[in-house]
Amino acid sequence: MAFGKVTYQNVSIKYGIFVGIAHIIYFLIMRLFGLQDIVELSFLSSIFLIGGICLAIMAFKRAKNGEIDYFQGLAIGATVGVVSSTILALFLVLYLNIFDSSYLANLQASSLFPRSLSILSLFVLTIIYGSIPGFIIAFVAMQWFKRPDHTMAKRI
Q1: What is the CA radius of gyration of the chain?
Q2: How many whole angstroms separate alpha carbon 141 and alpha carbon 155?
Q3: Are 1 and 63 in contact, with CB atoms under 8 Å apart?
Q4: Alpha-carbon distance 15 to 98, whole Å?
């Protein structure tokens, strides 16, 4: 990307899509091994969100020659979280409606979700569960990335 054309929105959306796809692949692998009913394992996918946000901030900082505004970093994290969790939420709605409607009952039986969980509330909760952590992860990550001495150059 050219120096002037790189925006935090473009970078955020790109990495948000990657993280969303990673969430879906992880869910499908869990299903393949019969682990999708262990809801607590789904929270391990937060590793993808952490990695995606850090990679997005690094890519943006590299494209801007090492300059990054603190609020741009926060916006990158929040946007990656929203985009990735929206992709996952859309996938879960399709999955529940087309492939396995009994999965919703498994979520309702979990202590992590209310018994009155509907497909719509699952959609909204999935987006919330990805958006808020995205902002918090970016807040923590920006403590490192905002420093002027933090560079992406390889050290010999």
Answers
A1: 17
A2: 21
A3: yes
A4: 27
As a whole number of angstroms, the distance between CA 96 and CA 102 comes to: 8
pTM: 0.84
In the chain, the amino acid numbered 82 is V
The answer to whether 76 and 57 are in contact (CB under 8 A) is yes
Instruction: Quote the tokens at residue 98.
Output: 């087309």
Which pLDDT tens digit goes with each residue over 83-102?
A: 999 999 999 999 999 988 88
* Side chain identity, residue 83: V
Tokens of 138: 């970016």
The whole-angstrom separation of Cα 152 and Cα 65 is 10
pLDDT at 153: 53
**Element containing residue 74 per DSSP (H, E):** helix 70-94
**Kind plus residue range of the DSSP H or E element containing 47:** helix 46-63
